[in-house]
């Protein structure tokens, strides 16, 4: 029996030696890695998918190669997916979605509304200037010559389509022109336009807001000088709060009214400026002034808000284009241009106008678009979130930051550097002169050249002008109908007017109704595409999908690399006393196991007494 046992043991050792040595000596068959190795233990015990099939004994080499390739493909796929996700997180960390709650229009500021007459100068006034300028002995002779020169310069710089095509050549061309001392008289362009163009109270004849008729439109409209000329605006931040004066920046009690771009004719009421100053637009346009939700009798809050949807709560105005008194219209048509914009921006009527035709009734239905921002995007760089918060970006010429104000600021600064001057309607430092509007002058040629270049370079030069993170835009649609006969409308007067026929009763007037067309809007929301929690969850999902990886899988790697490896080292170490055993305490060898088995087999078998067996059977 001993010989048989030794033969079996020898055969087992021979088979183990052959398998541990790799494949069979004459063909590609089996390979068993040493199971006591740390790598084999990790492969067999790891929770990662596929590794146990690589380390299990008696697996064919082709099976091991298959699972090895499958695991590598899983690692590569997970790496590609995680890299794409991280790249998206870095490049576009902000996404725009929609809020879950609606925003009532009562909380949304009414837009600023700006009207500009296509005709800037009254023919009667220009003819009077020509008459006085032809009389050298007249006391106003010099002033008439100066104003007539400004009229001619302004009309020539604002050519219509027909005039640019060399038609209507003499329209708006005064008979007497004097361009001497032009730099001096250009400084008065702002005051000249305010004094000599069509007054706001003559263009806006009747006004109404939320069903209440206002006695004078001048109480609601303020003149503002734009590239198009003088216009009249309603519900806009006063220019002293809108514009900066770089010369006075940093000086104590420096009034913005000292800005030379404002001229001397524009005035603002201190009470109105105080009311506008209560509006903290830097923290969001819809944030109302203090005590707005608990008003007291007589309280006025700016900007104006519409307290209900529809025409009955909106703004209505009667416009008189005075087509019979046209001198040098800025367009080839007749009527009035208008635009809607936020209260903290200057109107850009020339580039983005809408037209109100004569003798029409126009309904302008507004649909505001709000954009809010989560606080968690504030720690991102502006280049990453592609927007600025209210006071994050400072402008040189404008107090509030908006994209349009930034573009105007950028263009004005570029023209000041290239042409050493500024447009008459733009804010400027005291040391910067006004550009000559004469197209044949040096300034005029430089400005025309810069304007042509800016069309191609504007986005490049002003690429830093990003949108506001919390912004508001006003989309609108218009519906137009023809007015009834003027005799039926304005000649049929009630007891208030009695027989006092208004002077504009026979003019080609128009009526405009501007109102919010919806009771509430769903605002957009800028927020992080991935937060830290989302990034970890998505990474874990990809690793779990491709490899079956989890936090405990990482703990397994740490365990086998550090803890398990340390204990194996301690058990095998003879140089240090860390877990070392003496030779007598080592486990028995294979021969000792065989001797123990022989002794067990040779031991006598214990038998119970016969009487015990009989008793148990009964």
From TrEMBL:
Chain segments annotated as transmembrane: 65-86, 542-567
Keyword vocabulary terms for this entry: Ion channel, Ion transport, Membrane, Sodium, Sodium channel, Sodium transport, Transmembrane, Transmembrane helix, Transport
One Pfam family it belongs to: ASC
InterPro entries in alphabetical order: ENaC (IPR001873), ENaC_CS (IPR020903)
Membrane topology annotation: Multi-pass membrane protein
Disordered: annotated span: 1-21
Composition skew (Basic and acidic residues), residue ranges: 7-18
Subcellular location: Membrane
PANTHER family: AMILORIDE-SENSITIVE SODIUM CHANNEL-RELATED, PICKPOCKET 12-RELATED
Family in the record: Belongs to the amiloride-sensitive sodium channel (TC 1.A.6) family.
Protein name in UniProt: Pickpocket protein 28
Organism of origin: Orchesella dallaii
Lineage start: Eukaryota, Metazoa, Ecdysozoa, Arthropoda, Hexapoda
């Amino acid at each position: 029996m001993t010989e048989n046992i030794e033969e079996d043991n020898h055969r087992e050792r021979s088979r183990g030696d052959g398998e541990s040595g790799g494949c069979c000596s004459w063909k590609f068959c089996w390979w068993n890695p040493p199971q006591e190795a740390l790598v084999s233990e990790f492969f067999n015990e790891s929770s990662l998918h596929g590794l146990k099939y690589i380390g299990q004994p008696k697996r064919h080499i082709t099976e091991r190669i298959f699972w090895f390739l499958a695991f590598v493909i899983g690692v590569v796929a997970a790496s590609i997916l995680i890299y794409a996700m991280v790249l998206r997180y870095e490049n576009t960390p902000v996404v725009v979605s929609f809020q879950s709650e609606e925003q009532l229009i009562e909380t949304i500021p009414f837009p600023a509304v700006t009207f500009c007459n296509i005709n800037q100068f009254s023919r009667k006034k220009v003819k009077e200037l020509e008459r006085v300028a032809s009389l050298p002995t007249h006391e106003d002779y010099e002033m008439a010559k100066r104003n007539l020169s400004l009229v001619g310069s302004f009309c020539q710089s604002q050519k219509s389509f027909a005039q640019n095509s060399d038609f209507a050549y003499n329209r708006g061309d005064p008979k007497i022109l004097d361009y001497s001392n032009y730099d001096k008289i250009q400084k008065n362009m702002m005051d000249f336009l305010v004094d000599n163009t069509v007054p706001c109270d003559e263009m806006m004849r009747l006004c109404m807001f939320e069903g209440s008729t206002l006695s004078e439109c001048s109480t609601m409209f303020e003149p503002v000088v734009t590239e198009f000329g003088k216009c009249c605006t309603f519900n806009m931040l006063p220019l002293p709060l809108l514009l900066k004066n770089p010369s006075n920046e940093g000086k104590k009690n420096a009034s913005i009214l000292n800005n030379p771009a404002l001229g001397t004719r524009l005035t603002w009421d201190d009470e109105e400026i105080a009311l506008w100053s209560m509006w903290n637009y830097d923290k969001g346009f819809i944030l109302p002034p203090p005590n707005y939700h608990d008003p007291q009798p007589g309280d006025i809050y700016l900007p104006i808000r519409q307290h209900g949807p529809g025409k009955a709560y909106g703004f209505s105005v009667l416009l008189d284009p005075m087509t019979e008194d046209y001198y040098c219209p800025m367009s080839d048509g007749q009527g009035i241009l208008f635009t809607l914009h936020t209260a903290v921006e200057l109107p850009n009527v020339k580039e983005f106008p809408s037209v109100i035709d004569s003798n029409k009734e126009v309904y302008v239905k507004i649909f505001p678009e709000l954009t809010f921002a989560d606080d968690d995007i504030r720690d991102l760089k502006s280049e990453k979130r592609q927007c600025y918060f209210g006071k994050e970006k400072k402008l040189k010429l404008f107090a509030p930051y908006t994209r349009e104000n930034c573009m105007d600021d950028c263009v004005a600064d570029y023209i000041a550097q290239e042409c050493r001057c500024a447009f008459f309607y733009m804010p400027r430092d005291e040391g910067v002169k006004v550009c000559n509007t004469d197209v044949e002058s040096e300034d005029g040629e430089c400005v025309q050249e810069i304007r042509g270049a800016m069309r191609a370079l504007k986005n490049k030069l002003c690429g830093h002008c990003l949108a506001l993170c919390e912004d508001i835009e006003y989309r609108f649609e218009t519906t137009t109908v023809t007015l009834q006969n003027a005799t039926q409308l304005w000649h049929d007067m009630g007891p208030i007017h009695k027989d006092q026929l208004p002077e504009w009763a026979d003019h080609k007037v128009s009526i405009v109704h501007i109102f919010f067309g919806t009771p509430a809007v769903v605002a957009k929301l800028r927020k992080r595409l991935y937060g830290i929690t989302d990034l970890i969850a998505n990474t874990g999902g990809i690793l779990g999908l491709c490899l079956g990886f989890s936090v405990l899988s990482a703990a397994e790697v740490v365990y086998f690399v550090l803890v398990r490896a340390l204990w194996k080292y301690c058990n095998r170490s003879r140089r240090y006393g860390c877990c070392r055993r003496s030779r007598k305490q080592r486990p028995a060898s294979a021969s000792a196991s065989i001797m123990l088995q022989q002794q067990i087999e040779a031991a006598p078998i214990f038998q119970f007494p016969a009487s015990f067996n009989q008793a148990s059977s009964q």
